[in-house]
């Protein structure tokens, strides 16, 4: 059984091999193989879920092999300064892995709009998938970092080569901001490694929270704070938190749509994942005392994103700022330090992944059909393309947190948490709930409702094949919204562990 | 027969090296620059051999090293001259001041 | 049947899903599926009501989500109030769906219309059955979505688009209050469940100030949904939707949800006198405020919309003066006669294709069925004795009097007068006088007349469930067995109130008759044309304009402020950082001249410096 996780993470290689053996010119074959390449991870993750659902313990899947040893200190402690190849999965990871595998498949499906160099594109896409799957299963920081960098590099090329008009600028912006984040992350990891002699998450958690273990060099209380702040800053850039969000808007506007689906759906979530797993998991004590700042930042993000989205003229920018706003909800939930709030944050990670993917999938189709995503250029689409408009409306209602869809559960839980710990802050932040409706309806109604424009009279509506991705995503969104225990159950144990860590 | 002292070899090497350095830094003709570099290499070879015979712990290693060094110098000269030939065919000059295509 | 009451909302949802998928193929027969589904729901509701009369409250729940140590539950509850609303909602929905078959004939998106109607009915029935506040909020928003979709049904009209957006956003402002109230209640009582919340309030676990705050926030939700001042202005605009929708959502059901919310959380309100007073004052003010606007409007549907706002204010006034039964009673009777008026208005619009009452006239002889039905509705809403509106209005007036709030009592009295005046202004302008349009108007088809007929009967008879003469069945049914509800089933008031109410309403009708039929009194008698008051009323007290210049501009300003931060502060910082690095880089690049010998000199000089340092320090740098 233990091989299953390795298979999961590296199964996209099959697809890569298949692609490498295909001729560069064979557009349809390349697209097909690219899609097929994303199927094995999806199947493996579904098998994993099947095991989980049938009551098997996820701990059985843990892999641990010797990998790298630094120096020669084995006479003191066999594990000192070693980095193992270790993968494991728990409920939280499982959910994210499922989402990653699903969204990558859908993104590969949506990649029919890619116009050139399909071979390189799909190879990079599959590398990106390896990176994302690895990030969510890695059990030590070095391995995590390697996978993290893999996502960064493949995403950089995917944005820079296959994007829209200002793709290079966006790609460099992406690389620079995330490079700074990576650098900070690497420094933190190296300090921890140098001082504690390990980067295993469990071992580190034990050393930092309980102590009593001899370490190479002591980690002082101040240093713990510094390390946590470093970690949070690194992941804050990824999330992104105001004021480090500008790269993300550019990427969302310029990147090819399938990549934006993945970027908004999964890559941003790595920031949240890291903050929860490493920030809250390894440094619970310190996290408690910075939580209030996170909550404030979360409220700022939530409102700032909403107000910015309100005056954008490009629908993609509206969605980008809406993502920023919704990532604020993650911070609000985490900052509340309440069980409900943290649960809300985790729900938001999943829920926004699905909703953002749905919306960007649709906006990609709109752009493909009309060659524009400017709100003022569009209008009255409901007349000629009713199905497309219907899905878009459904997606926007999911985004504005309509009950019955996943967004409501996460927003509600996050605010439930914050109202307990910081009622006034929560009261200010809750204005954003109204603002979300305002900007979302403004944008979507201007696109779909109103008088139809003559130039769009001959648009063709979605066919049934194109509706499948939207249908799958909406089905998941509604299922979680109607019966959130579906998601709550796998997450329960991870959440309990975190809550015990911060002593609530 | 009195032995030539170590310092004599070293001074010879020093003089050779300085001549080579002067030539490498000041001459305009690239061929002369290359020859000057050979001079500097040979200065180093003299040091190798001298220390191998008269150093604190004499050993054959220094002479072996000098053999390596000569071989490499030969290879280097060959490559250098080949590049110079190619450049000359393009630019019709061997003046080193005009070979500044590596600037930023 | 009570154990299976959860099926009642799901049947319309099921029909709605079927229609969404197969609507294209079904075309106009979609109507039959929709009608059938809601008819089944109606029959089930009646069975549940009959069973509930002799049975205690039934409740069933499942765990919806575990958060921390708390289990959030979902389920359904069959209480006295629920069952009444179930019957009312499913009945009106059923009638409106039958009516729509005729009204929407020839519409391209016919099946979509029934999809939306089914969805709305599902949400409204779900709202009514909710046993806890969170679930209520859940459906509360879904109802809002249904309303949004139906207002925007004619999506290609700019007005419809704006109205739909406005309705959703304005109600959401109120909903925010409701949401915060729910969260606060959860932290104070540890539950969303009505029963548990009421028992901890009964045990005095929440401080007075907090309780008032919570009650006011809850009321904010009700204000948004029920179109009370100051969040009323979406409701008249919502008339852009098809007329059956106005009858169903914006007269009978959804807008009454606000009143229902206050009624269902009544123990919270009754624990705080400040909150009760606020409810009463807002209700009373809205009643007379909206009635005054209705006096001068000329769009038939808008007049009815303002009338709805006014009547909802009446209900709030009743609840605020502890007239629990009176509020619910008026909610029921109003649902019937207002739905009737809207459907009749729809029938008129269907016939002559205009909504401007000054372009109508002389329809009495042409629409032999619609006209008397409209008259019944008009008489009932005016509170003419022996019709349903008379009894429910009387109940409200009595409760205001008994409560001792005489200012509000007289406001309610004057509103009754204004109501009968504007309704009969409408009636006389439409049905009497000379026809003003050439359109040959004919009577509407049977599918439209039948629902109006049923509603007409109800508008006449439904008042007799709670009368001072035959007994207060409704009040006793509502109060019996509800240990948290500390109100009498019926308030006893002086008999002259009933007489006075009759006089006020009849004099309103008389005045309208004299002005618009006999024309013995000039139309400028009450309010002079072009005067300040007249312009203010026609422009609805400039409320929309005020909002535009205050709230709208503030939001725009804040957004612009944010974008300046983005562009200049963050952008400036980015520019500074990249600029510094760039200039450092280009300075460094200038050193690279391409002159190999210069590099050699530099290397040699560097070596020389190192050697000198080495020589001066005499060995390793320490």
TrEMBL record, chain A:
Residues 138-436 form the NADH:quinone oxidoreductase/Mrp antiporter transmembrane domain. One of its GO terms (molecular function) is NADH dehydrogenase activity. It is found in: Cell membrane; Membrane. Keywords: Membrane, Transmembrane, Transmembrane helix. Coiled coil: none annotated. It comes from the Bacteria. The chain crosses the membrane at residues 6-21, 33-52, 87-109, 121-138, 144-164, 176-196, 216-237, 258-278, 290-311, 318-339, 345-366, 391-418, 424-441, 462-483. GO terms for cellular component: plasma membrane. Signal peptide: none annotated. It is a multi-pass membrane protein. GO terms for biological process: ATP synthesis coupled electron transport; electron transport coupled proton transport. Belongs to the complex I subunit 4 family. This is NADH-quinone oxidoreductase subunit M. It comes from Peribacillus psychrosaccharolyticus.
TrEMBL record, chain B:
Its EC number is 7.1.1.-. The chain crosses the membrane at residues 6-25, 32-52, 64-88. GO terms for biological process: ATP synthesis coupled electron transport. Its main location: membrane. The keyword Cell wall biogenesis/degradation does not apply. The keyword Translocase applies. It is found in: Cell membrane; Membrane. GO terms for cellular component: NADH dehydrogenase complex; plasma membrane. Keywords: Cell membrane, Membrane, NAD, Oxidoreductase, Quinone, Translocase, Transmembrane, Transmembrane helix, Transport. It catalyses: a quinone + NADH + 5 H(+)(in) = a quinol + NAD(+) + 4 H(+)(out). InterPro entries: NADH_UbQ_OxRdtase_chain4L/K, NUOK/Mnh_C1-like. GO terms for molecular function: NADH dehydrogenase (quinone) (non-electrogenic) activity; quinone binding. Gene3D superfamilies: 1.10.287.3510. It is a multi-pass membrane protein. NDH-1 shuttles electrons from NADH, via FMN and iron-sulfur (Fe-S) centers, to quinones in the respiratory chain. The immediate electron acceptor for the enzyme in this species is believed to be a menaquinone. Couples the redox reaction to proton translocation (for every two electrons transferred, four hydrogen ions are translocated across the cytoplasmic membrane), and thus conserves the redox energy in a proton gradient. Belongs to the complex I subunit 4L family. PANTHER family: NADH-UBIQUINONE OXIDOREDUCTASE CHAIN 4L (PTHR11434:SF16), NADH-UBIQUINONE OXIDOREDUCTASE SUBUNIT ND4L (PTHR11434). NDH-1 is composed of 14 different subunits. Subunits NuoA, H, J, K, L, M, N constitute the membrane sector of the complex. This is NADH-quinone oxidoreductase subunit K.
UniProtKB/TrEMBL annotation, chain C:
InterPro entries: NADHpl_OxRdtase_5_subgr, ND/Mrp_TM, NU5C-like, Proton_antipo_N. Residues 130-419 form the NADH:quinone oxidoreductase/Mrp antiporter transmembrane domain. Keywords: Membrane, Transmembrane, Transmembrane helix. It is a multi-pass membrane protein. It comes from the Bacteria. One of its GO terms (molecular function) is NADH dehydrogenase (ubiquinone) activity. It is found in: Cell membrane; Membrane. Its main location: membrane. It holds the Pfam family Proton_antipo_M. The chain crosses the membrane at residues 6-23, 30-50, 80-99, 111-130, 136-156, 168-186, 206-224, 245-269, 275-296, 303-322, 328-352, 373-392, 407-433, 445-465, 495-516, 598-621. The keyword Nucleotidyltransferase does not apply. GO terms for biological process: ATP synthesis coupled electron transport; electron transport coupled proton transport. One of its GO terms (cellular component) is plasma membrane. Residues 64-114 form the NADH-Ubiquinone oxidoreductase (complex I) chain 5 N-terminal domain. Belongs to the CPA3 antiporters (TC 2.A.63) subunit A family. This is NADH-quinone oxidoreductase subunit L.
């Amino acid at each position: 059984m233990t091989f299953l996780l390795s298979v999961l993470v590296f199964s996209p290689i099959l697809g890569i091999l298949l692609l490498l053996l295909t001729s560069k010119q064979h557009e349809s074959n390349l697209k097909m193989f690219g899609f097929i390449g994303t199927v094995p991870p999806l199947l493996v993750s579904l098998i994993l879920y099947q095991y989980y659902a049938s009551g098997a313990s996820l701990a059985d899947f843990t892999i641990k092999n010797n990998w790298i040893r630094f120096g020669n200190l084995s006479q003191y402690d066999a594990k000192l300064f070693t980095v193992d190849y270790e993968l494991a999965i728990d409920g939280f990871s499982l959910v994210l892995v499922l989402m990653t595998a699903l969204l990558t498949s859908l993104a590969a499906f949506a990649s029919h709009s890619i116009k050139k160099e399909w071979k390189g594109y799909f190879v990079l896409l599959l590398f990106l998938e390896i990176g994302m799957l690895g990030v969510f299963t890695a059990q030590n920081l070095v391995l995590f970092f390697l996978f993290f960098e893999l996502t960064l590099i493949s995403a950089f090329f995917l944005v820079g080569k296959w994007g829209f008009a200002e793709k290079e600028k966006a790609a460099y912006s992406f690389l620079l901001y995330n490079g700074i984040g990576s650098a900070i992350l690497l420094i933190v990891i190296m300090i921890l490694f140098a001082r504690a002699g390990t980067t295993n998450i469990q071992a580190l958690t034990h050393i930092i929270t309980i102590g009593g273990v001899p370490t190479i060099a002591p980690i002082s209380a101040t240093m713990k704070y510094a390390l946590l702040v470093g970690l949070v800053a690194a992941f804050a850039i990824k999330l992104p938190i105001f004021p480090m969000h500008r790269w993300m808007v550019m990427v969302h506007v310029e990147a090819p749509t399938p990549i934006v689906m993945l970027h908004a759906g999964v890559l941003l979530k790595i920031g949240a994942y890291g903050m929860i797993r490493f920030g809250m998991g390894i440094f619970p004590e310190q996290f408690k005392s910075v939580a209030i700042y996170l909550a404030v930042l979360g409220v700022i993000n939530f409102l700032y994103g909403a107000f910015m989205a309100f005056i954008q003229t490009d629908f993609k920018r509206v969605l980008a700022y809406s993502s920023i706003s919704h990532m604020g909800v993650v911070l609000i939930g985490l900052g509340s330090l309440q069980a409900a709030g943290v649960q809300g944050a985790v729900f938001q990670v999943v829920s926004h992944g699905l909703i953002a993917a749905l919306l960007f999938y649709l906006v990609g189709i709109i752009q493909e059909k009309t060659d524009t995503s400017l709100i003022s250029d569009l209008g009255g689409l409901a007349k000629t393309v009713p199905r497309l408009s219907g899905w878009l409306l459904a997606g926007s209602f999911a985004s504005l947190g309509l009950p019955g869809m996943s967004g409501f559960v996460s927003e509600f839980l996050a605010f439930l948490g914050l109202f307990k710990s910081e009622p006034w802050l929560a009261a200010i932040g809750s204005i954003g709930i109204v603002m979300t409706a305002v900007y979302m309806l403004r944008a979507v109604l201007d696109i779909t409702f109103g008088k139809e424009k003559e130039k769009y009279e001959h648009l063709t509506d979605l066919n049934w094949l194109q509706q499948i991705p939207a249908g799958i995503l909406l089905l998941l969104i509604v299922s979680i919204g109607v019966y959130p225990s579906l998601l709550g159950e796998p997450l329960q144990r991870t959440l309990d562990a975190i809550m015990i860590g911060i002593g609530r | 027969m009195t032995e030539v002292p170590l310092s004599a070899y070293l001074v010879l090497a020093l003089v050779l090296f300085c001549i080579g350095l002067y030539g490498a830094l000041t001459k305009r003709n690239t061929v002369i620059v290359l020859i000057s570099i050979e001079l500097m290499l040979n200065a180093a070879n003299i040091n190798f051999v001298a220390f191998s015979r008269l150093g604190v712990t004499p050993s054959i290693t220094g002479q072996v090293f000098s053999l390596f060094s000569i071989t490499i110098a030969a290879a280097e000269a060959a490559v250098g001259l080949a590049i110079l030939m190619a450049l000359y065919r393009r630019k019709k000059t061997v003046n080193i001041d005009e070979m500044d295509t590596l600037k930023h | 049947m009570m154990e299976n009451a959860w099926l009642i909302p799901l049947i319309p949802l099921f029909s709605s899903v079927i229609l969404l998928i197969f609507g294209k193929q079904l075309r106009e027969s979609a109507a039959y599926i929709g009608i059938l589904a809601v008819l089944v729901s109606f029959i089930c509701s009646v069975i549940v009501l009959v069973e509930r009369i002799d049975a205690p409250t039934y409740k069933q729940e499942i765990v919806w989500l575990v958060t921390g140590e708390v289990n959030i539950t979902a389920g359904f509850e069959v209480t006295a109030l629920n069952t009444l609303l179930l019957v009312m909602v499913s009945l009106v929905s059923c009638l409106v769906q039958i009516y729509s078959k005729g009204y929407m004939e020839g519409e391209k998106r016919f099946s979509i219309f029934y999809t939306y109607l089914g969805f709305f009915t599902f949400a409204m029935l779900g709202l009514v059955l909710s046993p806890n506040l969170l679930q209520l909020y859940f459906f509360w928003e879904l109802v809002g979505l249904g309303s949004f979709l139906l207002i925007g049904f004619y999506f290609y009209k700019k007005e419809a688009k704006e109205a739909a957006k406005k309705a959703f956003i304005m109600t959401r402002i109120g909903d925010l209050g409701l949401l915060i109230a729910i969260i606060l209640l959860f932290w104070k009582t540890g539950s969303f469940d009505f029963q548990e919340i009421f028992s901890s309030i009964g045990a005095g676990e929440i401080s007075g100030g907090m309780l008032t705050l919570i009650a006011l926030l809850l009321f904010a939700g009700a204000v948004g949904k029920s179109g009370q001042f100051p969040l009323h202005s979406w409701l008249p605009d919502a008339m852009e939707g098809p007329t059956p929708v106005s009858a169903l959502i914006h007269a009978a059901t959804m807008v009454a949800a606000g009143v229902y919310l206050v009624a269902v959380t009544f123990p919270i309100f009754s624990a705080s006198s400040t909150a009760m007073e606020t409810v009463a004052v807002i209700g009373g003010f809205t009643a007379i405020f909206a009635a005054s606007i209705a006096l001068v409007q000329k769009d038939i549907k808008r007049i009815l919309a303002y009338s709805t706002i006014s009547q909802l204010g009446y209900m709030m006034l009743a609840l605020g003066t502890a007239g629990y039964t009176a509020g619910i009673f008026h909610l029921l009777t109003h649902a019937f006669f207002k739905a009737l008026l809207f459907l009749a208005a729809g029938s008129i619009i269907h016939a002559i294709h205009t909504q401007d009452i000054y372009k109508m006239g002389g329809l009495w002889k042409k629409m032999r069925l619609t006209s008397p039905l409209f008259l019944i509705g008009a008489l009932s809403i005016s509170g003419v004795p022996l019709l349903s509106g008379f009894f429910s209005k009387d109940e409200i007036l009595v409760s205001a009097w008994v409560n001792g709030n005489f200012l509000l009592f007289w406001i309610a009295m004057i509103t009754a007068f204004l109501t009968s005046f504007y309704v009969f202004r409408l009636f006389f302008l439409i049905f009497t006088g000379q026809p003003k349009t050439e359109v040959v108007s004919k009577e509407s088809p049977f599918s439209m007349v039948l629902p109006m007929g049923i509603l007409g009967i109800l508008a006449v008879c439904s008042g007799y469930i709670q009368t001072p003469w035959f007994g207060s069945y409704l009040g006793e049914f509502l109060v019996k067995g509800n240990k948290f509800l500390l109100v009498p089933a019926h308030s006893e008031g002086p008999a002259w109130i009933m007489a006075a109410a009759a006089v006020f309403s009849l004099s309103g009708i008389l005045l309208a008759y004299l002005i618009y039929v006999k024309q013995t009194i000039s139309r400028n008698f009450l309010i002079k044309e072009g005067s300040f008051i007249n312009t203010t009323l026609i422009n609805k007290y400039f409320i929309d304009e005020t909002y535009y210049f205050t709230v709208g501009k503030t939001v725009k300003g804040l957004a612009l402020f944010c974008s300046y931060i983005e562009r200049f502060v963050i952008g400036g910082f980015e520019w500074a950082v990249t600029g510094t690095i760039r200039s450092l880089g280009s300075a460094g690049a200038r050193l690279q001249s391409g002159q190999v010998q210069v590099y050699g000199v530099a290397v040699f000089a560097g070596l020389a410096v190192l050697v000198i340092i080495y020589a001066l320090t005499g060995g390793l740098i320490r």
